[in-house]
């Protein structure tokens, strides 16, 4: 019997022919060092997104989600707060995020701090979640990593939903809040000690007694309306999957207040028109006082990402890193198991010489260089590593069967949608975060293998896990993934490149930057441990250089304005065989083409996000595994 086992083991080793000599006991290989800090990151941000509470929003399925992020600096480190995370994250470098358990949940099914606000006030970190009920304390801590918080006030009588806190240079403290399809955002100066709105408290008597949201969000006393929507003029503020639901069934939503002060100006940021749509974006109005009046910035939305793997950029905040570079955070959608199934993204941002606030999302779901010094973000911070895995053939160990799924998307009548979902290998490389492959089990040994078609230079990979048949609800501290990645030139002789067999960290969007590039054609991932549910991956993304020719410039590029509705244009171009996708740039002047739209394969784009009465400029470029083409001549659209 022992002889038989020995023969079987020998045959197994010969059949797989894995080379493991480059590995040591700590998981380090010639190309991967788990202890070496990354120089890049990739959206969605790779944090341990919490699982929703059981039956959250009346949906039985287990799924991860978070949204509405706030990143602030405190004592030289970065702190990330977001919706319902049973705590928060901190990082030294904006890449390696560590979780601190700090729940404020009172009952098992409660939201645990939806759309929270955080700000450093008088050298202390302040924190508050969303509520219309006037039942939340205002919390504070001088030591956030301890997970312990004190109550600055026991009950904040000022209601706050999607709140933001801002302390001006004169030490005055302001609170902004609101989320509505009908009403604007509001703001007010508050007393630091009591957290009550400034002014005669008798003027707020109706507010303190109000029970309906529409009454609670109205201005009373010294509360001011600060920002509202004008979808009739601003196309991107319209509700709908493509800004196409008029009239909006629940109104055009405004939410996600945030204040940034730059060069004496106050930039009042907001999110619109709704979190479940690809056009979810951040806009900004500008004023000379924290409570306005504010004027709509001509360049809007200021952060916008309606295409690519990561879709959506609304409801976040703007912060400066330790080198003085600005970043804009936002919410991106999955919206399958729940229309509020979401993730978090972060993009380079800034202010140009004319004081225009912008965020650069071009190639914003490809690797982005982390900051190490002061730099100009007008051209972004791309690593230059291209996507190598798009639509490449994949083989897998097994695949789940197709099934009818209630997606919790909504149609134009507001009804839920049922769809047939399949979990085939082709979903691993389709650049669609809403689809995924699933193995039949969660067992060790399940695998996936990608054929890049030829040898390419590989610099980084991103493994985006999917929550298929997960059983976890709410936060647990034993959630982690383990796997190994092998590479080969011939699919016969394999080299171990990435060893995460000892990983104990929750990495649902695991981004791995190699310590040095490697050339290979085949990539194989072998599952060792899956966090919850079956071994399932939305997209297995590979970045680097294809080592061949960049695409030619795009031909036939036209922007056709809709004469009956100048908020809409139809953009067309000729599809070309040497490109996998196209990036459209537009802006309010030829030197301010800050916004972009990524399109895969297609040769048209129905764009409904322009403002009436504004002159725009457009251009386009093609991209493939090898690089990016030259941009086309800029087109003026009046």
- Assess the beta-strand content as a share of residues: 35-45%
Question: How many separate helices?
Answer: 3
pLDDT < 50 stretches? 1-16
How far the N terminus sits from the C terminus, by CA atoms, comes to: 83 Å
**Radius of gyration from CA coordinates:** 25 Å
What structural category arises from helix and sheet content?
Answer: mainly beta
Average pLDDT, rounded to a whole number, is 93
Number of strands: 41
**What is the helix content?**
under 10%
Largest pleated sheet? 9 strands, mixed
Family: Belongs to the glycosyl hydrolase 43 family.
Keywords: Carbohydrate metabolism, Glycosidase, Hydrolase, Polysaccharide degradation, Signal, Xylan degradation
Domain F5/8 type C: 391-545
Signal peptide: 1-22
Question: What would your notes on this structure say?
Answer:
There is one protein chain. The chain is mainly beta and 638 residues long. Helices cover 4% and strands 37% of the residues. The protein has three helices and 41 strands. The strands form ten sheets. Strands 1, 24, 25, 28, 29, 30, 31, 32 and 33 form a nine-stranded mixed β-sheet that branches. Strands 36, 37, 39, 40 and 41 form a five-stranded antiparallel β-sheet that branches. β39 (616-624) and β40 form a beta hairpin. The longest helix is centred in the first third of the chain and has 15 residues, at 2-16. It is globular, with a radius of gyration of 25 Å. The N and C termini lie far apart (83 Å).
């Amino acid at each position: 019997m022992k002889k038989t086992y020995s023969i079987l083991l020998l045959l197994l080793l010969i059949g797989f022919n894995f080379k493991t000599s480059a590995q040591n006991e700590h998981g380090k290989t010639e190309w991967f060092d788990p202890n070496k800090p990354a120089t890049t990151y990739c959206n969605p941000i790779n944090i341990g997104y919490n699982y929703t509470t059981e039956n959250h929003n009346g949906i039985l399925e287990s799924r991860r989600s978070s949204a509405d992020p706030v990143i602030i600096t405190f004592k030289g480190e970065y702190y990330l707060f977001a919706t319902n995370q049973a705590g928060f994250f901190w990082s030294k470098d904006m890449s390696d995020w560590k979780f601190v358990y700090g729940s404020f949940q009172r009952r098992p099914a409660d939201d645990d701090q939806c759309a929270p606000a955080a700000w450093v006030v008088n050298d202390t970190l302040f924190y508050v979640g969303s509520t219309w009920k006037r039942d939340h304390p205002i919390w504070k801590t001088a030591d956030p990593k301890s997970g312990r918080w004190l109550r600055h006030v026991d009950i904040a009588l000022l209601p706050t939903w999607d709140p933001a806190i801002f302390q001006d240079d004169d030490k005055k403290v302001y609170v902004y809040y609101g989320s509505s399809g009908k009403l604007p955002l509001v703001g007010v100066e508050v007393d630091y000690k009591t957290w009550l709105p400034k002014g005669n408290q008798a003027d707020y008597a109706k507010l303190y007694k109000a029970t309906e949201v529409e009454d609670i969000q109205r201005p009373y006393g010294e509360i001011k309306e600060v920002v509202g929507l004008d979808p009739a003029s601003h196309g991107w503020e319209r509700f709908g999957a493509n800004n196409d639901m008029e009239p909006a069934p629940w109104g055009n939503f405004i939410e996600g207040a945030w204040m940034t002060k730059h060069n004496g100006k106050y930039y009042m940021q907001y999110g619109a028109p709704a979190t479940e749509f690809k056009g979810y974006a951040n806009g900004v109005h500008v004023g000379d006082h924290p409570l306005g009046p504010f004027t709509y910035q001509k360049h809007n939305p200021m952060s916008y990402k309606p295409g690519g793997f990561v879709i959506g950029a609304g409801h976040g905040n703007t912060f400066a890193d330790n080198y003085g570079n600005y970043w804009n955070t936002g919410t991106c959608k999955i919206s399958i198991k729940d229309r509020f199934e979401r993730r978090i993204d972060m993009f380079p941002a800034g202010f140009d010489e004319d004081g225009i606030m912008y965020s650069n999302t071009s190639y914003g779901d490809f690797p982005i260089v982390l900051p190490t010094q002061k730099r100009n973000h007008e051209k972004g911070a791309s690593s230059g590593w291209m996507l190598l895995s798009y639509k490449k053939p994949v083989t897998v160990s097994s695949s789940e069967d197709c099934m009818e799924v209630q997606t919790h998307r909504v149609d134009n009548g507001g009804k839920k949608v049922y769809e047939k979902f399949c979990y085939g290998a082709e979903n691993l490389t389709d650049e669609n975060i809403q689809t995924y492959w699933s193995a039949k089990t969660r067992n060790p040994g399940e695998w996936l293998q990608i054929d890049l078609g030829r040898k390419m230079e590989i610099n980084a990979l991103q493994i985006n896990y999917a929550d298929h048949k997960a059983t976890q609800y709410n936060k647990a501290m034993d959630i982690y993934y383990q796997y190994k990645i092998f590479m080969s030139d011939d699919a016969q002789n394999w080299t171990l490149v990435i060893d995460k067999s000892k990983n104990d960290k929750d990495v649902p969007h695991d981004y791995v930057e190699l310590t040095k590039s490697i050339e290979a054609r085949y990539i194989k991932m072998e599952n060792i441990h899956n966090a919850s549910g079956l071994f399932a991956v939305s997209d297995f993304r590979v970045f680097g250089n294809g080592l061949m020719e960049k695409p030619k410039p795009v031909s036939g590029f036209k922007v056709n304005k809709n004469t009956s509705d100048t908020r809409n244009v139809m953009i067309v171009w000729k599809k070309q065989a040497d490109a996998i996708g196209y990036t459209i740039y537009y802006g309010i002047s030829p030197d301010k083409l800050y916004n972009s739209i990524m399109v895969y394969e297609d040769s048209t784009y129905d764009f409904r996000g322009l403002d009436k009465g504004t002159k725009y400029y457009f251009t386009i470029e093609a991209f493939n595994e090898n690089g990016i083409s030259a941009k086309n001549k800029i087109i003026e659209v009046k």
